[in-house]
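Hello forum,

I keep getting stuck at the same step: I have a sequence, I want structure tokens, and every attempt I make locally crashes halfway through. Rather than fight my setup again tonight, could one of you with a working pipeline run this one for me? It's a single chain of 113 residues.
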Amino acid sequence: MNLTTEQHGNISIVRVADARVMYPMLGDFSAAVSSLVAGGHKNVLIDLSKVTYVDSATIGCLMDLYRQINGAGGHFKLAGVQKRVETMLTMTGAQNFIQIHADESAAVRSFGA
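Reply #2:
Ran it on my machine without issues. Output:
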């Protein structure tokens, strides 16, 4: 999976560069985010601006990461979610738990940074 991670103050930003995020690549994605949490990073923002498609396993993975980070007292948010991906999040009810922001700057501000 093609992703990068950077720090913006106390926010870990994970940028996903793949257009399609599906089951076979979720292990790498989940491990990258889980290692941030294990390292004490509690505010995680996933930039999905390049992602045009996710499958149901990806939605499940995002919910698992939300629960993990929320359980650690942190915040998990998404930015740059394209319409097709947003539809999947809405159909599954994930948007009721995971905050979705139009762009990265709005998401960063929502952390109070």
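The chain is about 40% helix and 25% strand. If your local run keeps crashing, start a new thread with the error log.
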